[in-house]
Amino acid sequence: MHLARFQTAADAPPQVGLSNGEGGIVALGTAGDGLTLSDLLHADDPAGRVAACPSGETFALADVRLLPPVERQEVWAAGVTYKRSQVARMSESEAAADHYDRVYTAARPEIFFKSTAGRVVADGEPIRVRSDSRWTVPEPELTLLVAPDGRIVGYAVGDDVSARDIEGENPLYLPQAKTYDGSCALGSTVLLAEGPLDLPATTITLTIERDGATAYEDRTDLSQMKRSLEELVAWLTKEYSIPDGAALMTGTGLVPPDQFTLEQGDVVTIKIAGVGTLRNPVTRG
Hints:
Blueprint: E1 2-7, E2 15-19, E3 24-28, H1 37-41, H2 46-52, E4 55-60, E5 65-67, E6 74-79, H3 83-92, H4 97-105, E7 110-115, E8 127-129, E9 136-137, E10 140-146, E11 152-160, E12 162-163, H5 164-169, H6 174-178, E13 184-186, E14 189-192, E15 203-210, E16 213-221, H7 229-236, E17 246-249, E18 267-272, E19 276-284
Parallel strand pairs: 6-17, 8-19
Antiparallel strand pairs: 1-2, 1-5, 1-14, 2-3, 3-4, 6-7, 9-12, 10-11, 10-17, 11-13, 11-14, 15-16, 15-18, 18-19
């Protein structure tokens, strides 16, 4: 069951809909009732709440504007949760290599603030390379939608765009490397969490196109994660309340080679099997 937020016009209020699997989206609730995605996801029984909603008009996806799956929720991210990420982070900064090595094996994971809801880039909108970065990459990540009580209630596709040269210069620059305009993108559809994911079958594919050709492509799957999804949520909420819920990116296992950086005009596509697709053009500066 895939849910999405959408608008039928630029000045129309956001609505919530259910994908019909045939290139359309069925509006849920009644016009003007103020139903939000959070209302559904944060219910005691989200699937039951969706089933109880009256169905409205069906729209073709081409006729609506899909919105990010966050309303007031903060976006957080976890790092060094895959072996490949550990190796990449160690290589980008010799001075801090030992820190990344130790956090991979430590009980406490790396968790950092990524974005406010209003700054999240939607599917089809441009992600951005900082003007002062010479080495920036996309980081494809399964993103968890978390209810205020800590339940994992949905899954989305995320891109934690990162300036690796800035972070590599000094680990204390991580907020500047990770949190800036155009650095956080989320796919528009949310897979309702009606049961645990099949980790090996949940593949993540990253494709970067440049000048009409594939410049980079690779894939991994969730079985390569060192930490469980529940563990990451538990650490996020351990001493931090999330009254509006939260989105939590879970780390990346796909890192382009060190000589590769995003350029103006590139197109980044991230596909997570069973969850969705996120596609964004790249701008710089």
